[in-house]
């Protein structure tokens, strides 16, 4: 499947966005979830690094532009409904989370 065919298979929501789950390609640890629109998904495919859409700032952003913690895209999948992306990456630099943690999912329910 070529790049444009891949993008055309995605079911963006009414706001033109799709959730993107970012996963470490080696450990399979879930690093973060962010939103992509058609443009950020296309840039991610072309650049082989993650680009997202900020709902609060209403703009595109590339992971690592301010923190230096970039994500090199290795694999890109969409789910059976085409409404969620899975982006497998190599995490470079510090963690994926803006808090400095390796993953945004560092808190869990204790039993």
Describe this structure in words.
This protein has 111 residues and is an alpha+beta fold. The chain has a single domain (3-91), classed as Phosphoribosyl-AMP cyclohydrolase (Ubiquitin-like (UB roll), Roll). 14% of the residues lie in helices and 35% in strands. The strands form two sheets. The chain has a four-stranded mixed beta sheet with strand order 2-1-6-5, with helices on one face. A two-stranded antiparallel sheet has the order 3-4. β1 (17-24) and β2 form a beta hairpin. The mean pLDDT is 95.
List its traits.
14% helix, Ubiquitin-like (UB roll), globular, 4-stranded mixed beta sheet, 2 helices, single chain
Write the layout of secondary structure elements.
Blueprint: H1 3-8, E1 17-24, E2 30-37, H2 38-47, E3 51-54, E4 59-62, E5 71-78, E6 85-91
Parallel strand pairs: 1-6
Antiparallel strand pairs: 1-2, 3-4, 5-6
In CATH terms, the superfamily is Phosphoribosyl-AMP cyclohydrolase
Number of helices: 2
Can you write the helix and strand succession as a string? HEEHEEEE
Largest sheet: 4 strands, mixed
Provide a quick synopsis of the model.
The protein is an alpha+beta fold and 111 residues long.
